[in-house]
Amino acid sequence: MLKKDLRLNYSALRENTSREFILNASLSIANQLLKTPIWEGSYYHIFLPIFEKKEVDTSFVLSILYGKDKQVVLPKVSGENSLTHYLLTDSTQLVKSTWGVPEPTDGITIAPSKLDVVFVPLLAFDRRGNRVGYGKGFYDRFLSECGPGVLKVGLSIFEAEDVITDVDEQDIRLDYCVTPKNIYSFKED
């Protein structure tokens, strides 16, 4: 299926889900994450959800990260098409961006090359590890700046599509995608 069709379909599916469904699915995703082999790193990059778009509630994953004593890093849109990454600390202040994304106002910047794991937002993904986001390319540009060993972990309330037919060469594949019921691995060992 084409990315534009997947964006339309999955945006509509999300719109028709209840907040309770999102909350329960998000908790199940966090529990599934505990079964993945991603916990050896130090720096974990995570997105904060746009609740109006019914994204995965990552507060459960944040609790796991804190419980495992990990360094948590948050993105902030900087400029027209890039992200800056800040260490989340007790003094970090968050403000909603024009897109509704909670972002740090400032703080200690962390280079993408330092990251061990990146939790990646998405609308849909396929059985090959390709993902569809909102179409702005922020995460593909960001992931291309990360080190070669970074683990890219998608979080999805829905299961995999068979195939995304219009994948571009700049699209960066996931290593894992975690849903409420499954852990998909795309790592090539």
Automatic annotation (TrEMBL):
ATP binds at residues 3-7, 131-139. GO terms for biological process: folic acid-containing compound biosynthetic process; tetrahydrofolate interconversion. Its EC number is 6.3.3.2. Substrate binds at residues 50, 55. Keywords: ATP-binding, Ligase, Magnesium, Metal-binding, Nucleotide-binding. PANTHER family: 5-FORMYLTETRAHYDROFOLATE CYCLO-LIGASE, ATPASE INHIBITOR/5-FORMYLTETRAHYDROFOLATE CYCLO-LIGASE. Coiled coil: none annotated. This is 5-formyltetrahydrofolate cyclo-ligase. It catalyses: (6S)-5-formyl-5,6,7,8-tetrahydrofolate + ATP = (6R)-5,10-methenyltetrahydrofolate + ADP + phosphate. Its cofactor is Mg(2+). NCBIfam families: MTHFS_bact. Gene3D superfamilies: NagB/RpiA/CoA transferase-like. Belongs to the 5-formyltetrahydrofolate cyclo-ligase family. It is an enzyme of class 6 (ligase). One of its GO terms (molecular function) is 5-formyltetrahydrofolate cyclo-ligase activity. InterPro entries: FTHF_cligase, FTHF_cligase-like_sf, NagB/RpiA_transferase-like.
